[in-house]
Specification:
single chain; 6-stranded antiparallel β-sheet
């Protein structure tokens, strides 16, 4: 279909009787040639637009694919970093030979969590509860102070402390968390001053104090922070908990075997005394 402007020009030329036939024919031929050029140009433009649309779609798909690959790579790299951190904790935990080595595990967990961008870590600690006593042996490492402590801690003098202990002693899998806001921190510090625990002066300027504890049966592993953990950070800590739990149970088995061996040695020595006495 001819362009409407060229068609109008053709109609005018055909109706004009003043133009010589030869000139009119030449002019009509020129109009047809212009129409042909116009059609070719229009075809090229349509093809160019189609190519642009196709290229745009392919480009969007490529950008989306690259972005997805970038996210996948970031996830894989982060997971590799987490696995490396877990392996470092596992190595230290499996190297425990005595209870006094516990703070070294707490130290490694705290430092590896920090390397994975967990913010405002206060301490990581292990509590081993005593049978028949309202105390637990507390093994802890304070990250900002870079100090470790081993203390026998009483827990019945404060209801929150007692609730923590009761929850942990219910058995493996129990979870306890405590949020102490800025207004409550002063009274909490005052309570701590009546005990033998380490007094953390960073709490004076902290926005809050948050505890997260997980029971391992005979003991518990916990972390405290100067601000609440995010859901992702809490999930990350449970991964360290699982690594520590395996090593900790292995350590308990070793301690049990050592106790039995010592008892056997004592019994052997007593038997020798009995034999000599009877002789």
């Amino acid at each position: 279909m001819m362009n409407q402007h060229l068609q109008h020009l053709t109609d005018l030329l055909a109706q004009d009787g003043t133009i010589p036939d030869a000139a009119k024919a030449a002019m009509l031929q020129a109009v047809k040639a212009a129409e042909k050029e116009f059609e070719i140009t229009r075809f090229k433009l349509e093809r160019t637009e189609k190519v642009k649309r196709t290229t745009g779609i392919l480009l969007e798909e490529t950008i989306e694919e690259l972005e997805q690959k970038r996210k996948t790579l970031e996830t894989q790299n982060h997971e590799l970093e987490v696995e490396t951190a877990l392996e470092r904790v596992r190595a230290v935990a499996l190297g425990m030979n005595r209870a006094a080595d516990m703070p070294d595990v707490c130290k490694m967990i705290a430092r590896q969590l920090q390397s994975l961008n967990v913010k405002e870590i206060r301490n990581v600690q292990t509590a081993i509860f005593s049978d028949g006593k309202a105390t637990y042996q507390n093994y802890e490492y304070y990250l900002k102070h870079d100090q470790s402590f081993i203390t026998e801690t009483h827990y019945q003098d404060d209801p929150r402390h007692a609730q923590f202990a009761a929850t942990m002693q219910r058995g493996n899998g129990q979870v306890f968390s405590l949020h102490i806001n800025k207004e409550e921190l002063a009274s909490w510090i005052d309570y701590q001053r009546t005990t033998n625990v380490f007094i953390d002066d960073y709490l004076n300027d902290a926005p809050s104090l948050d505890y997260y504890w997980h029971s391992l049966g005979p003991g518990a592993l916990g972390i405290s922070t100067y601000q609440p953990l995010t859901p992702d950070e809490s999930t990350l800590f449970t991964r360290f908990l699982k690594v520590f739990e395996l090593a900790y149970r292995r350590w308990l088995d070793i301690e049990k075997a050592r106790t039995q061996a010592r008892e056997a040695q004592v019994e052997g020595a007593l038997e020798k005394v009995r034999s000599r006495t009877m002789g």
